[in-house]
Amino acid sequence: MALTKVEKRIRIKRRVRGKISGSASLPRLSVFKSNKEIYAQLVDDKDGKTLVSASSREKGVDAKGTKTEVSVAVGKAIAAKAKAAGIENVVFDRNGFVYHGRVKALADGAREAGLKF
Which residue range forms the structural domain that includes residue 41? Predict the structure, then answer.
């Protein structure tokens, strides 16, 4: 039987996560998108801790406009929080999603705000 869309994404996610991991000095920028919202967090995999997070549900994020514009705002918010925490370099984890559309917009917003990956 063919795999569902979610099963395919989870397979891709497992394959990617086998190759990348985050640390305190170089955390992993993990992205999750639902049909309505988008979430990003910086994760230290060695200690199993989330260092910084941002989402389109937060009050500080400008959630007006299209979903792609909101994704750019979330990218800028996560980058600003990372800078405040003293983090400049990250490893990008698209979490099995295609690097296109909202995921790409979030990454571009984070890069614009000064995050390097």
Answer: 5-113
* Angle formed at CA 28 by CA 25 and CA 33, multiple of 5 degrees: 155
Residue with tokens 């086998």: 18
Q: What is the CATH number of the domain that holds 98?
A: 3.30.420.100
Q: Give the residue-averaged pLDDT of 1-29.
A: 91
| Calpha distance 65→6 (Å, rounded) | 27
Domain total in the chain: 1
Sheet (strand 49-55) strand order: 49-55, 38-44, 28-33, 91-93
Amino acid at 49: K
Which among 47, 61, 59, 55 has a CA at the least distance from the CA of 30?
55
pLDDT tens-digit profile of 24-67? 889 999 999 999 999 999 999 999 999 999 999 988 787 788 99
d(CA 5, CA 97): 10
Look at residue 103 and give its three-state secondary structure: helix
Query: Is the pTM above the cut of 0.85?
Result: yes
